[in-house]
Structures are given as structure tokens and as C-alpha cells.
Amino acid sequence: MAVPSHMEFFIDPNRCIGCQSCVQACGECDTHKGHPMIHLEYVDRAHSTQTTPVVCMHCDQPTCAEVCPADAIKRTGDGVVQTARKPRCIACNNCVLACPFGVPKMKAEFQLMMKCDMCYDRVSAGKKPMCATVCPSGALFFGSREQVEQLRPRSTPINQFHFGNQVITTKVNMMTPKVGRAEYIDVTAAMNEGAIGKEITLNVLMDGLFGEKERQ
Amino acid sequence: MAKLADQLNNITKRFGPHPAFSAGVRLATNVEPDNVVKTHCCFCGQQCGIQLKVKDNVVIGFEPWEDFPFNQGMLCPKGVKRYLQGAHPDRLLTAFERDESAEGGFRPIPYDQAIDYVAYEIQRIQSAYGNDAFAVLSGASLTIEKAYLMGKFARVALKTANIDYNGRLCMVSAAAGNKKAFGIDRAANPWSDILKAEVVWISGANIAECAPITTNYVWQARENGAKIIVVDPRITPVARTCDLFLPVKPGRDVALFNGILHLMIENDWLDHDFIHNYTVGFDAVAEHVREWTPRRTAEVTGVTERAIGQAAEMWGEAKSSFLLHARGVEHHSHGVQNVLGAINIVLASGRIGREGCGYATITGQGNGQGGREHGQKCDQLPGARDINNPEHRAYIADVWGINEKEMPGAGVDAYELFRKIERGEIKGLLSICFNPKVSLPDNNFVAGMLDKLEFYVAIDFFLNESAHHADIVLPGSLHEEDEGIVTQVEGRVIKINKAVDPPGDAKQDWRIVQDIARAMGRERGFTFNEPREILDELRVASKGYIADYSGVTYEKIERQGGVFWPCPNEDHPGTPRLFEPGSWNPIANGAGPFYFHDGKARFNVAPYTPPAEDVDEEYPIILTTGRVVSQFLSGTQTRRIGPLVDQYPEPRIEMHPQLAEKLGVKDGDWTSAESRRGQITLKAQVVTTIRPDTIFVPYHWAGAKSANQLTIAAQDPISKIPEYKVCAVRVKKAEAAPDWADGERRA
To answer: H or E segment at B102?
Structure first.
């Protein structure tokens, strides 16, 4: 069975609370038990509680597959980029280094690249991926486009990413604020800027703090 | 007799906490479970639905339960990994007697022998010192059947007045405030009303970490256009993207609410019809808040006048709203006043008892709601009845088949109980589902009092830190080894289903309690064969009063996805939303929707008083305590679940860089915080997400890592809740790493 074409994955970092439920649940998935494939990071904990979860974006033209010298990474017809095939993977790390989103993990103990396969065993059987089922904040969501439009009227799903000159279209969508009117996300544009959390959080706390201005 | 049995190292080597990880069949792929059991999480008051996968009498994993309406499959990391508490190497598989020569300081003994010993000691102490010299400490994570049985056991089998429970540390301020204002203690609305609110006000509730599933309700309300106001000394994950953040100084919440009401009155953001028709006492409150000008409110709360004004306007002009609070406003020596202040701004707005207009405390413990209704509280009888009310006593005495005169009167709260041990008035203790050595404030005093007891018996499934001091430990049951009902945060009664049998000599807690009663020759009234029979008696015991469960059955819960109490008869579907116009209750009897004789809600003057221990030159910094998402309460379970331990291994001292700079502390430095009661050395976490005058330490750890060595045993005079959220400390860079950090120093 294939992943139903009307069902899509949506990531909304705006909602993420950093609880790691997705990471803990990913490690319970039957195909890679004990090995969570999700990356969940604080953007800049010193200045903000902002966290951001990253699953495989399932690119239309996956860089990981393009750079694989052993042709071990396959994208199935329903758009899911599968984890490396064990008999083929030579553990060369090319995919780990090349993936613009930093998704694949090299599992040295298995001599195998492993990554999120959108819970292919669950999704192709009509279920939702484990992480998007348990996520208590809705930061990870799996459903139809109609559903997400109805549930998230303030956001627009975007699935085009610019890394310098490389344009990547993905099966997984990133929710962005409607007010921003973005058509794509320019990932490298902000690479040399500091984390914006710094200014924002200082303002939020200090502006509301009576007496702090007077002291400074 | 009750002295620390052995070197701590010896105890922990034998009994843990050891972190468990998935292994064996739990790690194997494509294992077909024998059984998949629909039940609920064993941890917090959200009581998320979950399915447990069972193989050979072991819970081997979970599957989300998407059809359960409250959480629809969602879980926090604790729920995901909860299954690792079963088949755990630290599990108590026999009864134990203290024996200093034994491995770990305790030697296994036959269960029946332990029960006989316990019965003998109870009777010895009671005949020597009187019935009240033996006390019971119970817990709000027990099912309602067990909680009911504990209250009955104390009053009928032990004939002692001294029973109280760990809900005393949790939401009693909310309970007391709700009873004063509404006449009933329950969340006024189902969470579905959050989705329809124009403004969601969150005071003192770190929703993302302590009630993670509620996050989705708050975010969905925002998607629907709601403004979110968060009041907290820290920028919690939910505060990060709220519409208005008020960084309140710990211990000043009621001042803020009074200041908001002041502006609501000044700007006429009031529902005059509601105030007139459905409330009493507004004028006195209006007079009281006259002095709470924005200027004064700002000075006391540490929040700017501008932010106070914005909050008042957002709240005042809303057409619908939901106000949520939790321990952040309740854990104070004036916790009830904080709660009353919150309720006053709800009542003045008239936004309660309707769709999208709500108010609730976010209950903390698994059965925090149900556990506080049916008589394990020192002054309460089943159905939320009052042990001092002659009619209530007579009704329950009749249900229990005893003479009303035999029923003890009100006992004392859980902390006062330890002061009674100090005074020599209490000599023996039975504890279940309670780890006071970790969870009570000023816990070095608590540990000393456990040592002072002549006899202490603890029932638990792991050897919790309080049980280190026990003479006898009886092996109790895990959540998944028993069935029963629990009332979650919304007031929805849900059903816990049994997935596996207790291992070894471990027994379901209600059986253990009945075994003690039988060994004492007092088995009359303690011959239940299954939890369903206990529920049937509770249904009668609760009938006709406020917390009426008489129409709650296991079958109805399963059919409806839960039953909201009050549910006064078998045909009644339950009551999701309280206080709807025209609704009936047994107190007002048709006079109005609130639970007073005139059917009207009460405004209560809520005066501000500073915390019991304010900062001074000697102790200039505020300590506030709370939770992290991967740990739960005193950590008896979660400190034994490996992946949760790894997620946040040790407590840290959270502080603002301005404070850190003043102290010469850098992120990751060993840092000491000291109060008048104790001292703790932990690594600093330097973050701009906390007020510069406040440090935060989570409280889930024991011994040298326990935040409650520092906290103060000051209590609210009404609710008796301890003031966990404010005490005064001094902080400095530590000269050396603490002893427990040996491993880290080597590394």
C-alpha cells in the first residue's frame, strides 16, 4: 500500500514546546525501535524557549539520493524518501553531509544511514506517523490540506526552500505566518545573522518588568 | 525505631532508582501483542487516553488512542515512556522488613507476616497512645475507589482522625477558593470551551511542561482568533508566543488581579446584569480594589502599568474568555486569596456558565480532582461532604454501618501531621502514594520526623525515599495492574483498565488495606472483592450531595468517553459545563446555578499580603520551584524511566544573565543556593527567560538534589497549602562540585 496522496505532513515550529514527545515516540516505532530519527533543538536556549523539530522533508529530488554512490536511497512513488537500504549502504556519510536539512543519521553500530521514513509502515497502512499522532502542541501535524486550512487559518504551508542557488521542493510542508506572505523559505539568507531570539525575548521580559528600565 | 536503615548508597544500590530502558521483547520489532488495552496515562491530571500493548503479562509498549476525545492520541514524553515502569528491576516483589544487616537495609519477609506485624503495631500504638496517634498519608494518584477506601479505612478500621493526602500540596487552594466563590470545587467547563474563547488568560501555569496536552487547546483557540495572556515569572514555552506576557514577581498574583478589577470598574468593563442577578458581594470587592491603582499594582507585582492596562483592556473588552490557573498562583501562603482574586475578575466579566466562557484550575495529579472529593482529606467525607456537619456524618455513618458517634472528627493537614509527630502526638504512620521526604517543603525536618516515629509502614511499588525510613514496606500495585475510575482536569470521570497482573507478592492496594483491616479483626466493611463493588458503595455514599457520582458506571464511561460529574442518576449523561443558567443543583435547589442556597456566586474580598518569607539583605533572591516536562512529582516513577532521565538528568538553577553577572556565575557553573533551612549545589542555567530577581529549581529529585531542602513550610491559613513558589535565598558560585557529581568531575 502507498501513502494516500491527499495526506500531507505539516511542521509548525511556532507551536513547538520542546517537550520531546516526538523524539521519545519516534524511538518506539517498529522499524527502528530505540533509535529516534527526529531532530529537536533549542534555537538559542540562552535567550528563548524556542525549539524546532525536524523530520525528513522528503524532497522531490532528494539530495541524499543524488549523492549516494551506492544508490541505496530510494524515493517511492508516493513521494516518501526511504531510509538507506541495508544491503547497499556503504556508510560513506555522503548523504549525511549533503542533506541541506541535516536529516540523515549515520548509525555506526549498524554501518547504516538511517532517517525518518514518515513512518512508512504506519502511513501506508492508513495511520498517521507516530510523531504527528502524539505531538501535544500540533507542531507536527499529518492530515489533508483542507484540514490544515481549516485548523490553521493564520498560516500558509510552504514546501519550497532556497539554499543559495539550490531550490528544493518537498513533500513535507513548513507552516509560515500568513502575514509574511512568503512563497518560499530562503534558508541561507539569515545564515550570518545572530539568532533573533535574543532581541525578541529581552524585549518581552524587560518591557513588562516594572522598575527594570529605571534601574538601567 | 524508625531510623534511616542503612547507608544511602547501600539502599540505592539495591532498590534504585535505576533507569530502565527498552530491551528484549520491548525492543524487538514486529512483536504481535497478546492484548492491547485501552486505558489512561498514570501521570498528570490530563489523564490522556493511551493503549498499552501487553505480551506475556508485561506492558511492552504503547499505541496512541486517537478516539479518546480529550487528547485524541496526543501524549507527552512521560506518557510515551510510561510503560518502562513495569517489569522494572527496582520493583518491590515481596514485603520487606527493615534489617540493617540485609542487603540494602531491608530483608524480604512473607506478605502475611508483614501484614500481621503491621496490624500488631497499629494496635499497640493505638492502645498505648490513643487512636489518633496512628496516622495515614494517602495520595491523589490513587483511583477514586482506593481514595474512598483510604478515607473509610482511617475512620472505620483505624478510628483515627488523622488522615490527609498529598493533594494538600497540589490544588487545595483552588479547591478552597472555588468553594468560597462557587460552592463547588470542579473545573467549571470542559476544555472544548477553551477553543471558543476570545481571550485565554493563563496565570501561574507552565502548561507546556505540566499539562502538555492543554497546549493544543490554547494554540487552537489562538488559531480561532483568541488573544493569549500569560502571567508567569518565566517565559515558559507557551509564554514565548503569547499576545501579552506579564512577568509577575512571585507571590504577587492577587495584587495583579485586584489591579485588573480596578481597571475593569474604572472603564465599566463589567457585566452589570450578571453581577446583579447571579452574584453577591461585588460592592465590598469594588471598594477593596479602589486602592489597587495601576501605579500601586505595578509597584507590587513588578509588572509595568502599561502591560497591566493592556491586560485589563484585552480581558475587559472580550465577549468570551477562559481563565486558567495552576500551582503558580496556588502554592502560596495566600494561595486562596490569589484564587479568589482570579475568580473575581471572572465573575465581574460575567463570562462563566456559557459556551466559550470558562474558568478552571489545571489539576496536577492523575486523580487530583477525584482524589480530593471522597474523604481522604482530613476534614471531608465522600461526595465532598463535611466531616463537621452532623447531617453529613449521619448519612455516611449509615452507609458505613457504624454509629455516627464512633466516627472521628476532623484531623489535621499533611504538614501539621509532621508537627504532631514532633510533639509526640503521632507515633505511627501508614503512607501510600505519597513521598513526603521529597515532596514536602523544608524536607530535612520531614525526614527527621519519619525517624522519630515508633512505627512506619509504607505501601509502594518502588522503595521511594520516604520508605527508606519505614519499618515495613508492603508491595503495592502499578496503575496498569488494577482498575478503577479517576476524575481528570475537566471533571470528566474516566476508567483505568487493568492490563497486567501484579508480579510476585505485589498486591492491588485496596487488597493490602483490606488485609490490614482483617488482621486487626476489623474486616467488617472491608470485604470488597473488586473495585466495582467499592464504586457501587461510593455511588451511594456520594449520592445527593455536591460531588454526586451515583449515576457513574464503568459502562457509561466506556459508552460516552467519560462522564462529567455531577451525575445524579443512571439516566443522567453527566454535566460537562457547570453554572449554566437554569441549571439545578442540590444546594440551591432551583434558586440559581451556583452551589449556595440563593443560587448566587460570591465575590470575596481578596487582600494582598506579601510572601511569608520575603527577600532581605541576607537572603536577597526569590526561589521559585516547579516541574520539568520529563519528570513527575517526587520522581518515584519517572526517575526510574531511562529515556526520561536522559531528557533532563539533573536539576539546574535557572537564572537571568543580569543576576549571573552580578554573582560571577557562568552557564554550567556549579552554583549554591541557600535558604534559612537548607542548601543545594547545582549547575547554573543562565537564560534571559526568567526575572532577574528570581531563580527557578525543579523539585523532582531527592537528597542533595532536592529543592525542597530550601523551601519554606509556611502554609495558607485556609487551604494549608505550602508556599513552594516563594522563599528567600542567597546564591553564589560554588567552591567545588557537590559530592554526588564525582562521575562528572572525572569526566
So the answer is: none
* Last residue in a domain, options B342, B361, B380: B361
CATH code of the domain covering residue B310: 3.40.228.10
- The angle formed by the CA atoms of residues B214, B216 and B221, to the nearest 5 degrees, is 100
- How many domains does chain B fold into? 2
Q: What DSSP line would sit under B118-185, residue for residue? A: HHHHHHHHHHHH-GGGEEEEE-TTS-HHHHHHHHHIIIIIS--S-EEEGGGGTTHHHHHHHHHHHSS-
Q: Which of B361, B378, B400 is the last residue of a domain?
A: B361
CB hemisphere CA count around A115 (13 angstroms): 31
Residue ranges of domains in chain A = 7-190
pLDDT tens profile B553-612 = 999 999 999 999 999 999 999 999 999 999 999 999 999 999 999 999 999 999 999 999
- Reference B14, options B91, B83, B69; nearest CA is B91
User: Which helix H or strand E contains B548, and what residues bound it?
Assistant: none
The confidence band for B5, taking pLDDT boundaries of 50, 70 and 90, is: very low
Question: How far is A138 from B631, CA to CA, in rounded Å?
Answer: 21
**Which helix (DSSP H) or strand (DSSP E) does residue B17 occupy?**
none
Measured N-to-C along each axis, helices B253-266 and B282-289 cross at an angle, to the nearest 10 degrees, of 100
Closest Cα to residue B40, out of B79, B94, B88? B79
CATH classification at residue B691: 2.40.40.20
All three cell numbers of A93: 556519510
CA distances for A12 relative to A53, A196, B331, angstroms: 9, 18, 34
Which amino acid type is present at position B620? P
Q: Which of residues 60-119 of A touch B (CB under 8 A)?
A: none
DSSP H or E stretch at residue B418: helix B414-422
Residue B310 grid cell: 493592556
SS (H, E, C) B52-84: EEEECCEEEEEEECCCCCCCCCCCCHHHHHHHH
Q: Give the pLDDT confidence of B475-511 residue by residue, as tens digits.
A: 999 999 999 999 999 999 999 999 999 999 999 999 9
Per the structure block, which three cell numbers stand in for B734? 560554588
Whether residue B501 lies within 8 A of chain A, CB to CB, comes out as no
Q: How far apart are CA B248 and CA B256, in angstroms?
A: 8
Quick check: B76 contacting A, CB < 8 Å?
A: yes
Answer whether residue B230 is part of any domain.
yes
Which residues contact residue A12 at a Cβ distance below 8 angstroms, ignoring those fewer than 6 apart?
Answer: A138, A139, A140, A141, A152, A155, A174, A175
CB contact at 8 A, A161 and A168: yes
pTM: 0.96
Q: What is the pLDDT of residues B296-351, one digit of tens each?
A: 999 999 999 999 999 999 999 999 999 999 999 999 999 999 999 999 999 999 99
> B657 is in which domain, residue-wise?
621-746
pLDDT value at A213 more than 70: no
Taking the Cβ of residue A19 and every Cβ of chain B, the question of whether any pair is shorter than 8 Å is answered with: yes
Residues 190-229 of B with CB under 8 A from A: 208-209, 212-213, 215-216, 219-220, 222-224
Q: Which fold has domain A7-190?
A: Alpha-Beta Plaits (3.30.70)
Write down the pLDDT at residue A3. Answer: 87
The tally of CA atoms less than 13 A away on the side-chain side of residue B411 is: 35
A13 close to B (CB below 8 A): no
